Amino acid sequence: MPLGSKAQAKVQRLRDQMAQMQASTVEQIAQLKAEAASRKAEVQRNMKNSSYNLKQR
Length: 57
Fold this sequence. Notes:
- Residues 37-57 are annotated as: Disordered.
- This protein is mainly alpha-helical and 57 residues long.
- It has one domain.
- It has one helix at residues 3-56.
- It starts with a helix and ends with a helix.
- The model has no long low-confidence stretch (mean pLDDT 93).
């Protein structure tokens, strides 16, 4: 394989790796956003319940 072809193949492998890493990062960000939204909703429910319990006293 000529040197230029080897370099092109290596560049393509690196581009593929970068694309995979980017896709993985995007997926991780989406998961973290979903977890954050879930936790936020849980905290809001807990605050609402605490407020309700204080009013009942």
